Amino acid sequence: MRVKRVLMKLRPVVLTLLILTGAYYATLRYMPVGALAGLLHRDLAVDGATTSSAHTAFGDFSMTEASAAPAFDSEEQQNIAVYKRALPSVVNITSTAVACCDLFLRPVPEQGQGSGFILDKQGHILTNNHVIDNAQAIEVTLSNKRKYKATVVGIDTAHDIALLQIKDAPDLQPAVLADSTNLVVGQLVYAIGNPFGFTGTMTRGIVSALRSVATPTGAKIDDAIQTDASVNPGNSGGPLLNSRGEVIGITTLIASNPNGGADQSAGIGFAIPIGTAKAFLSDFEKYGHARRPSLDIVTFPIGPDIAEQIGLPADYGILIERVLPDGAAAKAGLRGGNQVAYNGNQQVMLGGDLIVGFDGQPISTPQDLSNAMNSHHAGDVVTITVFRGRQRQNIKVTLSDAKQIVNGRTA
């Protein structure tokens, strides 16, 4: 009887627990979120947001909602403006090559992806040469997702530049090309491309440095734009933009991890300055191919410490180590070195002319000489200012076409 009385007392408690559990489950399982909103009452608005609260059988409940879409700040507005302006001119490039072979010795097609940007209404597109190198077929996808077959119109392997063309594409929006000679470390830059095939991706960073870098093929990019804007495989050939959405460079190279690892962004990427591409386009328009102007010399940069050690008359400039036979410098009478010396483990030939000027512009570094050369063409006559011993001289030089020089490095 005692057990029966205990069970009778516990029955209401058990029934209450079952009812509450059932109601709780039914609320979570079947009650739409919108119905819960009807239980809420709005009681506070702070900084453009409204806080709603409710008192329910399960306790107090509150949430804060934005009363309207927030306005973009000036930085966000600039990012959006750059993207909207530049995106229609950026393209995705798919190149198909044939590799040999599968287990049955049949040719196997291989595809690579890169980026590029539209130059004009006629369908000319600028990209990297390594994006389309050895391709049997090239397909260009525009920002509106339309696809076109492309042909290679011209290449400049020394600068890793290629010019493509698509036909019968309406309403093309050309990119705006900027001046890349006045870039400043610290200025904002944007990269738009197709990293890992993700089309229309934009990243932002700054100009981290301006320096010469060597490509995997051994070619040298003078005044390459170094940036911390994230770039990855698939960005190659795409535009590097300034804060106005104008192209200042062609994204081309990712700094590799010396300890190995995946070929992906490590926070250091490089772009070919657009001035180099403009020189190529000018040559192509005039001659049908790239004509790189050259002095045909091997050089060594001079700084104050080295100049003092070897007794040079100037503490800046570029020392000519060697003039290439039958090259522009040799024909003009410029002189290379005749004394062997060592800078650490590097052998240097001393005694040659010290270049300190180019058409009246001071030349302190190899980058200065590269900038001066980029504004000229093969066949131009320029004035090179040198120190020969202690004597300062101006020497007229007719720039040669670097294609004509086979052996030795050129400058």
Which features characterize this protein?
411 residues; Thrombin, subunit H; six-stranded antiparallel β-barrel; elongated; disordered C terminus
SSE topology:
Layout: H1 2-30, H2 33-37, E1 41-46, E2 49-56, E3 59-66, H3 74-86, E4 90-100, E5 107-118, E6 124-127, H4 129-132, E7 137-141, E8 147-156, E9 161-166, E10 188-193, E11 201-214, E12 220-227, E13 239-241, E14 247-254, E15 269-273, H5 274-287, E16 293-294, E17 297-302, H6 304-310, E18 317-323, H7 328-332, E19 339-343, E20 346-350, E21 354-358, E22 361-362, H8 366-374, E23 381-388, E24 391-398, E25 400-401
Antiparallel strand pairs: 1-2, 2-3, 4-5, 4-7, 5-6, 6-9, 7-8, 8-9, 10-11, 10-13, 11-12, 12-15, 13-14, 14-15, 16-25, 17-18, 18-21, 19-20, 21-22, 21-23, 23-24
Would you give an account of this structure?
- With 411 residues, the protein is of the alpha+beta class.
- Helix content is 21%, strand content 40%.
- Strands 4-5-6-9-8-7 form a six-stranded antiparallel beta barrel. Strands 10-11-12-15-14-13 form a six-stranded antiparallel barrel. Strands 17, 18, 21, 22, 23 and 24 form a six-stranded antiparallel beta sheet that branches.
- It starts with a helix and ends in a 10-residue tail after the last strand.
